[in-house]
Amino acid sequence: MAQELHPLLLRQLRRVGMDAQATDAVHAQLPALLERISRAYSDADQARYLLERSQEVASREMTQLYNDLKASQSRLASLVSLSSDWIWEQDTEQRFRYVSSHSGDTGSRLSLLLTGKQALVDLMAVGDDNAATYANSVVTRMPFRNVTLRALTSEGEALYLRISGEPVFEGEIFCGWRGVGSDVTQATVAEQQVVQLARYDELTGLPNRSTFIAQLELALNRARVKEQELALFFIDLDRFKTVNDSLGHAAGDSLLQVMAERLSGLMRDSDMVARLGGDEFVVLLDGGVDTHVLSNVARRMLSVLCEPLRLSGRPLQVSASIGIGLYPADGTDVASLLKSADTAMYLAKSRGKNNFQFFTADLAQRASCHFAMEGELRQAAERGELRLHYQPRYDLDQSVMCGMEALLRWQHPQRGLLGPGDFIELAEESGLIVPIGRWVLEEACRQIRRWRDSGLNPPRCSVNLSVRQFSHEPIVDEVRAALAQAGLTSDALEVEITESMLMADTERAQEVMNSLHQLGIGIAIDDFGTGYSSLAYLKRFPARTLKIDRSFVQGLPDDRDDAAITQAVIAMAHSLGMQVVAEGVETQAQLEFLRHHRCDEVQGYLLARPLPPESLANLLPACSQTADPQPGAMVV
Ligand code: C2E
Ligand code: MG
Ligand code: MG
């Protein structure tokens, strides 16, 4: 139905010149127009509504997204800070550009250390496989996993870093590396310590026996293939046991460390120096076995090992014996080569120590003698092969025999009468000196008893104690028992103790000496001048006799040093209230010098050699003749 036009609209249409017909046309279209207008309104409303809605959603989603992002970032940050791993970025030159740091842990140290400072290639990948894999990844720009690197701080401290990383590309362009890492220093160091303990000697840091044997095996294989020769030096310190026993184990350890350093310092990097155990070292030289060259090497070794050193504040000088075995001449496998060098070393020792010796065929025979000898010495006391000889001591004032020293001999079934020089060290090394020393004490007391029982009046007899006996707990009881068994009083006996024994364990030495002194046993310091003690040091011990070593007496009266030392020792010993005995007097001139300088007693070949008891008996006064110097009077 046609809608009536509003009069105002009608008037307006007319004013713009529309006639009634046109006005009717408008009129006719009006509903449709209105319809369209109303639809347009409705569309606009809807659009506005949609716009508003979409803005609302967008803003809500953005907020949500933002919140999510923030949460995830903080989660990541807290994870990073909680984990021991750090995140790193490097430039194309592998310089660290960024290292995440966590305050208070190694991260911050690492970030300071690494950022921008060092190209990764300057760091060392640890382990051959590791290094190769890593180097390959860097060149090919491929990801790498768990590569351990070692970085040195400016203080020289080693840090171990385990990193995994991947290359970063923007489009086609390579921009550097990115990855994670962790500080594995503690674990790596602990691991290295375990390896170190298993392969190296803890005391000296040198390869230990098993490592050396493995290396020797490899060296022998190489030498076999390349038809090369090898030289094995077997080095054993002389009298190490005495140093150990007399200066204590800590000093012994320090000595081994110094010797190890000296040996390593002497050798080239390609030579292998190892400690087999105890005071035994080995050096393996590959290439060339020219005897002249090897002899020079051995001489150089001896000379560096002999250099004086100070241990526990005291000066000391040690020597070594070296045996040299050659591949292939003296052994083609580990065991035989080691044995040859060891055998040669034994020969060097038996030839007076401080020398070297090449292995020769007849050595094996001699070495087996050495081992056999230890077994024989073990049985010597039971078989009654040990003897004591007695060397008189003379009083220079009254020219009478005023004492004697019991000196050990071994009546060997095949080799004849052996002196202590032939077996005492073996006895010390094997510990046999303790039972042998006990036998010496008992036998000296028994002999005094025999002489007395046969109507003779022997003077005080001195007995040498070894350092092993001295540190052996019941020594004082043993002395007491030996005297008691023979029915002797303590004035029958004197003990001789070397200087170095006193310096060992001063407290123990003082304790033992005080006990012996309280028993009434005389104490003499033997071989004075060969140790390193001063007279002032000796003052604290209750020794009443000082024996000047033969080496000083030898040079008298012409050697000015020996003369000056002897004079000074006599004067100072007297000022401390000690008696002085000069050992090893062989000439009349020595005797006169000593008499002139008021030495109290002398002992030496000039007056009497050590004698078997039956010969010494001829020099002893009878019980009733104690006041009469005959027949023990000095005959010079
Ligand atoms: P020592 O205690 O200094 O004994 C003196 C050594 O000098 C003895 O050597 C003696 O024979 C030697 N001698 C004495 N006068 C002369 C001389 O005029 N010229 C020369 N060239 N030598 C002379 P021996 O008997 O060979 O003993 C050597 C060392 O063995 C002794 O030195 C002592 O340290 C040790 N010894 C001897 N018997 C025993 C013992 O029963 N127990 C222990 N632990 N050691 C002993
Ligand atoms: Mg002596
Ligand atoms: Mg002596």
Give structural notes.
This protein has 636 residues and is of the alpha/beta class. The strands form 4 sheets. The protein has an 8-stranded mixed β-barrel. The protein has a 6-stranded antiparallel β-sheet with strand order 2-1-6-5-4-3. Strands 8-9-7-12-13 form a 5-stranded mixed β-sheet, sandwiched between helices. The longest helix has 63 residues, at 20-82. The chain is elongated, with a radius of gyration of 48 Å. One magnesium ion binds at residues 526-527, 547, 549, 583.
Share of helical residues = 40-55%
Main structural class: alpha/beta
Radius of gyration: 48 Å
Distance between the termini: 177 Å
> How would you sum up the global shape?
elongated
Oligomeric status: single chain
Could you tell me which ligands this complex binds, including any ions or cofactors? ligand C2E, magnesium ion
What's the total helix number?
Answer: 22
Largest sheet features: 8 strands, mixed, barrel
Question: How do the strands line up in the largest sheet?
Answer: 14-15-17-18-19-20-21-22
Estimate the strand proportion: 15-25%
Number of strands: 22
Mean pLDDT reading: 84
Which features does this protein show?
8-stranded mixed barrel; 636 residues; alpha/beta; 6-stranded antiparallel sheet; binds ligand C2E
Indicate the topology.
Blueprint: H1 7-15, H2 20-82, E1 85-90, E2 96-99, H3 106-114, E3 124-125, H4 128-140, E4 144-152, E5 158-170, E6 173-183, H5 185-199, H6 209-226, E7 230-237, H7 240-247, H8 249-266, E8 272-277, E9 280-286, H9 291-306, E10 309-311, E11 314-316, E12 320-327, H10 334-350, E13 356-358, H11 361-380, E14 386-395, E15 400-412, E16 416-418, H12 420-430, H13 433-453, E17 461-464, H14 467-470, H15 475-485, E18 493-498, H16 499-504, H17 506-519, E19 522-528, H18 535-538, E20 545-548, H19 550-554, H20 560-575, E21 579-582, H21 588-596, E22 601-602, H22 613-616
